[in-house]
Amino acid sequence: MSFDTVPPPAHPAITPELVRELVAEQHPEFSHLEVGPRFDGWDAAMFRLGDGLAARLPRTADAVRFLIAETTWLPVLSVDWTFPIPRFVAKGLPGGAFPWPWACLLYTI
Q1: What is the pLDDT of residue 44?
Q2: Do the beta carbons of residue 47 and residue 35 sit within 8 Å?
Q3: Residue 23, in any domain of the structure
Q4: pTM score, two decimals?
Q5: Rounded to whole angstroms, what are the CA distances from 10 to 60, 63, 98, 109?
Q6: pLDDT in tens, 52-67
Q7: If you average pLDDT over every residue of the chain, what do you get?
Q8: What is the number of structural domains in the chain?
């Protein structure tokens, strides 16, 4: 049995500049927010947007399904949940140099 110990290579276009472009084009209400440094998880790259939001972009084509499932089902399933979960505030579409959907969510620690 083989276990991966490092995340798969990410899409090369995921940069703060790309996030600024996507946000400005698709969610201009957030375009005034500063884009922070990139933090990578296994499936997604995250960028802070100001103090209260984050942009989440799938790192690979395989990870798109996880973002779609979360943005679709978490709002439905979590109605009565009292523990912290990702709270999506905006969905993004493929655009510019980025071929996949992405999302903005409340930033929680």
Answers
A1: 95
A2: yes
A3: yes
A4: 0.88
A5: 6, 10, 12, 24
A6: 999 999 999 999 999 9
A7: 92
A8: 1
